């Protein structure tokens, strides 16, 4: 039976851990120069509505390094732009391709593709979730903070907008049970339903209005742009609202001494994060960007082979 990756909240703990284990294994093999080619004659379709650097390149390179053929489809260049129903597009593409990776606005679109397609569908970003990002982030945390078994013992602090990345961190906290403090201005909270479902199983997810309170003793501080794609018209207003939600050395001083700083990129240096922190010794930002390649390899391998725990 085929499975899809639509959001992290639907995963079992052992599944999420297995994704990280497999990504670490494939990264180690790659670093040793071991060549894996399980996807010879296989094709991945990338259906993107949103601009992308890291997600697109890492998925394309991942599939190519595993021996397959990645095919990029801007939805505006397909018949979907002329109102072809998703159920028709999905049932055609499943006869050409082995997996679909979708980066779009509406979560419903990804779910519709999964509903009508007999091949796996991976959510590469929607306005509601960014599951692949957080999986590669957790892989990076495992590398820097004592391994996979220590992930649930750490305190994570989010500073910024309650956006799709924040929602996916909440889902991860739901699955793994770790402490998550979110510093978010009023009226910019994460999705209410996502938060309420997570709180049913993990009471250690809390929202703060003061970033200093949220990052107190944190092992990981994570931030993102204040205005996501599609919110450009709100940029100036958000700059006023979020001006105190700035990850700099002063804020970092309230966290644990060995705290690591993360950002999913692209970053607006001097806005949500200082240049000093991005380039500092506690930044693992570019490690997490690199790990998207290896996590995407793991996800493609697991979902195409249906080797899911």
Provide a short characterization of the protein structure.
The protein is of the alpha/beta class. It has helices spanning 13-31, 54-65, 86-93, 107-116, 131-144, 164-176, 192-199, 211-215, 235-241, 249-252, 275-278, 285-305; strands spanning 43-48, 69-74, 99-103, 121-125, 155-159, 179-183, 205-208, 220-223, 260-263.
Cα-atom Rg, whole angstroms? 19 Å
CATH topology of the largest domain: Rossmann fold
Summing up helix and strand content along with how strands pair, one would put the structural category as alpha/beta
SSE series: HEHEHEHEHEHEHEHEHHEHH
Residue windows where pLDDT falls under 50 for at least 5 positions = none
CATH architecture of the largest domain: 3-Layer(aba) Sandwich
Largest sheet: 5 strands, parallel
CATH domain class name of the largest domain: Alpha Beta
- Classify the beta-strand content into a percent band: 5-15%
Q: How much helical structure, as a percent, in the residues? A: 40-55%
Please, what is the oligomeric state? single chain
What would you note in describing this structure?
The protein has 309 residues and is α/β, with parallel strands linked by helices. The protein folds into two domains: 8-130 and 292-305, 3-Layer(aba) Sandwich (Rossmann fold); 131-288, 3-Layer(aba) Sandwich (Rossmann fold). It is 40% helix and 14% strand. The chain has helices at 13-31, 54-65, 86-93, 107-116, 131-144, 164-176, 192-199, 211-215, 235-241, 249-252, 275-278, 285-305, and strands at 43-48, 69-74, 99-103, 121-125, 155-159, 179-183, 205-208, 220-223, 260-263. Strands 7-6-5-8-9 form a five-stranded parallel beta sheet. The protein has a four-stranded parallel beta sheet with strand order 2-1-3-4, with helices on both faces. Strand 6 (179-183), helix 7 and strand 7 form a beta-alpha-beta unit. The longest helix has 21 residues, at 285-305. The radius of gyration is 19 Å and the shape is globular. The mean pLDDT is 96.
